Amino acid sequence: MTFKRSKRPSVRSQNNAKWHRELKQWWATEVGIEYCEVRFSVCVGSFGGALAHSKKRRFILTREDYFEVCYACVECHRVLDQEMSHYEMEVTVKGIIEKRNG
Question: Is the pTM of this model over 0.85?
Fold first, then answer.
């Protein structure tokens, strides 16, 4: 028995692509941070920097969820994703956003 995959991308992936373009533009024009905001003990500054979401991709359902991000170096991003629980990751990223926004 074989299963046929749909050729159309899912609504979620279509939204993610659209939101990513919007987020990239917003980050470049409004925020502009290019150095790690997380600053764990393993931090390597801006090396391998990328936006870290407050939730895992499979739990991001709204545009607001997608835009809850901070800038993290490769090592801090790894700690957020792999060594923290979902709750710890969300609280950490939201705390960084709160601190940034004052």
Answer: no
